[in-house]
Known about the structure:
Elements: H1 2-22, E1 34-38, H2 43-58, E2 66-70, H3 78-87, E3 92-95, H4 98-107, E4 113-116, E5 137-141, H5 146-156, E6 162-167, H6 172-188, E7 191-196, H7 203-210, E8 216-219, H8 223-227, H9 229-238, E9 243-245, H10 248-252, E10 257-261, H11 263-278, E11 289-290, E12 294-299, H12 300-306, H13 312-315, E13 319-321
Parallel strand pairs: 1-2, 1-3, 4-5, 5-11, 6-7, 6-8, 8-9, 12-13
Antiparallel strand pairs: 10-12
Amino acid sequence: xxxxxxxxxxxxxxxxxxxxxxxxxxxxxxxxxxxxxxxxxxxxxxxxxxxxxxxxxxxxxxxxxxxxxxxxxxxxxxxxxxxxxxxxxxxxxxxxxxxxxxxxxxxxxxxxxxxxxxxxxxxxxxxxxxxxxxxxxxxxxxxxxxxxxxxxxxxxxxxxxxxxxxxxxxxxxxxxxxxxxxxxxxxxxxxxxxxxxxxxxxxxxxxxxxxxxxxxxxxxxxxxxxxxxxxxxxxxxxxxxxxxxxxxxxxxxxxxxxxxxxxxxxxxxxxxxxxxxxxxxxxxxxxxxxxxxxxxxxxxxxxxxxxxxxxxxxxxxxxxxx
Length: 322
């Protein structure tokens, strides 16, 4: 009898040890709370949110454990949103986009933060370096390959002489990409003009101010502009001008093309990183990741509308949206 009791105790201890190693509690994973926060609604951010949730569910979490908050384009609400989540005892925060992540980091230095879609986390003050996550913050970056997008521009629309940049100068992700775009243009003899916006209400006026002055538009992963992408695209299409963008969703919403961010891949990486940290991985040992595979997408309807021919060799390498 004593041997049986001893064996049972040994087995119980082994089970508890295995559970602790995996990062679960004796109550299972049902006590974990995950807070996801996005600054506004638009195709890219909603795609990221939905894919993070779907991936977390695939990883064994229930939707009841996932608390989703949306600031509805009012950044002043973000501090109170994060404080509410922290007071509710969330085990991890997943802020989507740069400003959201910065505000999350300002609210807590103890709750783990895994950001999603932050182009330049170093300049944003979130991490010391991509491989130096020495605070409570890490995540997945969506840095845009500006040079590859401009190479595609030269291939699809070789007659472009002047590019118009439309962006929100208050978004670090945009200003970083525009700075790289200017460097590329200066090195390749391409002129450029710019029009900045502070809200989606400014987009129509900004784009119209450049019509007749430029041969193409470029916008990277700007959240403000992405929120009004359909307006932007319609004005450009009516003027017969291509828009080159930094994200797959912006092509879906009417941009011409990108070698940019696949937000499903980005979101999946974000959820998997959060899962690892919830299971015991240390943020200090979890460097910032970049999106594994770029999205290569061309919108054929937009191309047809503005008279751009897609070479067969290019079409074979890209996803073509009909």
